[in-house]
Amino acid sequence: MSTHKPLKGQRAIVTGANSGIGKAVALALGEAGANVVVDYLFDPEAAEDVAQQIRDNGSQAMIYQADVSDEQQVQAMFQATIEAWGSVDILVANAGLQRDAKVVDMTLAQWQKVLDVNLTGQFLCAREAAKEFMRRGVEPSLSRAAGKIICISSVHEVIPWAGHVNYAASKGGVMLMMQSMAQELAGDKIRVNSIAPGAIKTPINTAAWDTPEAEAELLKLIPYNRVGDPEDIGKAAVWLASDDSDYVTGTSLFVDGGMTLYPGFREGG
Ligand code: NAD
To answer: Does the residue 218 lie in any domain?
Structure first.
């Protein structure tokens, strides 16, 4: 167990935290001393398992079922957290999904679902977080900032993605939403940043890495020559949530093994 607790006493909400990147972020924030709301949509047992691991590491945790694309459910989640723990200090807007199709075959429902969850869902959560951060202001014993919002974006906020126009549009939208919120909220001492993961081994993209052939193909896109683990994102989230990054706002932190440097130059390759 880590003795370094840069987030001690802070209260975090992590959306979609029962799986993949959200789970790793929730565990890392808990390990860093934060109390964590583990938001989930399906699979309460998986959410409870994450919460129990956080408690075993000495922080508080509770699970909460909320669909991030539903305004009332998001507001109720923030209300419940504030009632239980007094306030919120950190939001990690992570919940996301894909509904892939060629653009000529993409239904309006596929387009709308991805925008509703990946973009509108982040807006709804960030809005509630910002309102609470502004209400409370800075608590110097906890943090130099009034609050921190971390959007989980993607390398596809800058790399176009044929066959996934809904997903790329949602993540491109997250980038300018994040930057605009950062500009607007900086005067209130609220920091807003994104983490833009490259290829990370989670259920969202299993087919891209779960056979040696698929992994070899994927590695052609990654100069650092390894597929990322969810824990790589957890560590970045702890840094962006902590005062170690107090002068950082409006930034996308690419955690991608150099994928955005594509085509990666390899000697002799
Ligand atoms: P995942 O499928 O394991 O996790 C996504 C989580 O979001 C799940 O818990 C799911 O139930 C939840 N979710 C979906 N819709 C929701 C809703 N309406 N309300 C609440 N929760 C909802 O996949 P992941 O890879 O861990 O994805 C997490 C985030 O990371 C996503 O935003 C994704 O776009 C982003 N991302 C992932 C990768 C990668 O390589 N895995 C790369 C770039 C970005």
So the answer is: yes
